TrEMBL record, chain A:
This is Daunorubicin resistance ABC transporter ATP-binding subunit. Keywords: Antibiotic resistance, ATP-binding, Cell membrane, Membrane, Nucleotide-binding, Translocase, Transport. GO terms for cellular component: plasma membrane. The keyword Repressor does not apply. Gene3D superfamilies: P-loop containing nucleotide triphosphate hydrolases. Residues 5-235 form the ABC transporter domain.
UniProtKB/TrEMBL annotation, chain B:
It comes from Nonomuraea endophytica. One of its GO terms (cellular component) is ATP-binding cassette (ABC) transporter complex. GO terms for biological process: response to antibiotic. Keywords: Antibiotic resistance, Cell membrane, Membrane, Transmembrane, Transmembrane helix, Transport. Belongs to the ABC-2 integral membrane protein family. It comes from the Bacteria. The keyword Transport applies. The chain crosses the membrane at residues 21-41, 53-78, 99-124, 136-160, 172-194, 223-242. Residues 21-248 form the ABC transmembrane type-2 domain. This is Transport permease protein. The keyword Ubl conjugation does not apply. Pfam families: ABC2_membrane. It is a multi-pass membrane protein. GO terms for molecular function: ABC-type transporter activity.
Amino acid sequence: MDYAIEAEGLVKRYGDKAALDGVDLGARAGTVLGVLGPNGAGKTTAVRILATLQRPDAGRARVHGHDVAERPAEVRKLIGLTGQYASVDEKLTGVQNLMMMGRLLGMNRSSARARATELLERFGLTEAGGRAASGYSGGMRRRLDLAVSLVSRPSVLFLDEPTTGLDPHARSELWEVVRELVADEVTVLLTTQYLEEADQLADDILLIDSGRVAASGTPDQLKAMAGGHRLDIRPLRAEDEEKAMAILGSGELSIPIHDLAMAPAVLRKLDEAGIVLAEHALRLPSLDDVFLTLTGARA
Amino acid sequence: MISQSLTLTWRSLVPLKNSPGQLLAMLIQPVFMIVIFVYLFGGAAGGDRAEAVQYMLPGVLVQVALMATIGTGMNLATDIGNGVFDRFRTMPIARMAPLAGRILADLCTMTVTLAMAVLVGYLVGFRVTTSPLEALAGLGLVLLFTMALSWASAWIGVIAKSVTAMQGISTAVLLPLTFGSSAFIPATDLPGWLTAWMSVNPVSHLAAALRGFTVGGLDAADVWITLGWTAALLAVFVPLALRAYNRRVR
């Protein structure tokens, strides 16, 4: 398989605390790798090492075959980074931010302007392009940030918690952009605390916790790791809830189903007890369940 | 590398165009400095005011220029704090460009500020008694020394934990350098230790050189000592600032 990003045994220590404690990862070219984990899990440290901002204390990482610590200059020609804290220049306008990047990358004035216009249009910022970025909303700022990191047409893009702090509307807009990028063959490494985001966007997920890989695989593989199906019920009358829990033999209105024949049997028992159900559902576990099972932490 | 530095110089100057208020604040500062020093302190010294202006104005120009170097480090600390430099560091550009761009931009604004200060100086009675060329040479020397000191400020800005820390450290360094010099008062009738400090303080020599270039009585030694300090500051702080910038971990 062709990996655009690969890393083996990454270790990074701050004092005696290990932010990364032996992380392996691989992102297939043209796919999204979701790096999922709670705050302080080491996601940002991993991105900073892969984006040549920090050197690992141990381990190796390569972007399209170039070692990030040995050949950072080669790596920098291929990557784009959008940080957790939107790193646009607030005092410049949208156009100026984009043109500055183009000029830094060696474009002449007119091609830098053309690229800026094109990106503003693509990110729905044409109208705001002449205003200073300090007046942008959170979502606009993130979009500009992403646009700025695309000026160089990177083939590998690092998105460090791109939607943290955004409202649902702005978040889904950003997701749409990421999907378009992948359609353009860009490889994306996305860190997120949001399970839904990883589920929506990632082809592969790496679950990290306390600097170690807790699990990895496709979203479906991870969901399967959390166990089999679950049956969720909701009685129509709230006063039936305790009786229902007693029948389920569970402290919540949900039980694991190990044998699919078990579900109808449970529903029959509830029916016999005179409990009317407003809802019942047999489902595969969500990534939330995986997250809780594997990290014991709240997302 | 040069075109990248110039692009980043442009980046630092554009905000001044976007927000004229900032530019105005920057230009007004030397006006206050001149009024305070010439009328308040110059008057208190009891001497002739016209004479005081001739002695003090070069000192005030040096003071304004040196205090402005704090801005270089503060701007860098701000850029690093909000992640703008992280992006530059992931780009295929010269490592020196972001620092050099900032310092060049500050030098541009400094030139405008100094011109403004000279203009205000003229309004309060300061007169160049040498030639315009010599006066320009004096201002050039000030800009050169300021540029070298900006690299020290840049280094502190890169290693400082916060913008506030940067400001505190720089002020603590600059106050004894500027006020503990013969920029404002001649080193006579002062305690011996203070006179000793003033005579080694590079700011005394810079102020004396500018005074010589503008109102006469130039001692070439002051120029050479200032150039020596300029070279020394550059030799020490350019590598330090670049190394700190390359290693900087937010």
